[in-house]
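User: Second chain of the day. Same drill as before.
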Amino acid sequence: MDRRTFLGTVAAAGFGAAFEAHSAGESGQFAGVAAGTFVWTQVLSKQGKDPKENLDLIFEEVHSAGYEGVETFADYVATPVQAARITELLDKHQLKLTGLYRGGVLHEEEKAKRAVDEIGKLAGIAFALDCPHIIVNPDPLHDREKTEQELDIQAQNLNKAGELAKVAGVCLNLHFHAPELRNDGRELRWDMDKTDPALVFLCDDVHWMYRGGVDPYALLEKYGPRMRGTHLRNSVGGVWSEELGTGDIDYARIAELLKKAAYSEWLTVELAIEEGTPQTRPLVESMKQSREFIRQTFGA
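Assistant: Same format as last time:
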């Protein structure tokens, strides 16, 4: 089912049950360059605006900044009406939906059952929207590391969710933030090493690896063959930059590692603002500069 068919039938018929497998682009070639919408939620929220009500503006700026794709949040397509609206905006702004992001408790059995079921439904929605990836970040614990038993439960549920995604015809990509990278990336490594490489893939958020205190180059070398997504951001002196450019992370080296891993999926620029981040220009201009940096550094 393509997006246009979906737009015409979703309200009456819901989401289809028959799916086809997604195939990546040719080896060694990037699928394209996408923009993550997180930074717009920060900017618009500061202006007192609801990002959900301003997706037209966000998608317009993504397109005008030179991007071919957009990655956004699962709760933006939670209802048939919302999903149909996203379809209209993707067509209007000539964008491909490259990923849908969500969290979920996967280390507790009862809560995980509900989360896995919701991930399976999201996979069906993603396929109907011609979106190849769902990005899942298991809810972290901020006060301690998860126990081995909890991590085993989490890995089992990631496999279950990955199987549902595969049946639906999309990839499940594991995401992470700093808490999962404590103790030399213990939780991330557990998730990757204890799951089926045919079911669970990796969305490599390069700067969170750096901020989490692990070697982003070494982890990319280790898990590169399982990468199906990227989040790209940089910092200067540890503070997130206004645009993706030169800084603490050597992205020329990252580009070489992606080439070595035959990475052929989307490159996703995901800017973000924190205390100390310069804000000297409109966001769309920073996104344009980031797009040019991708062109120069990755050849994409």
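The CA atoms of residues 244 and 290 lie 5 Å apart.

User: Great, on to the next one.
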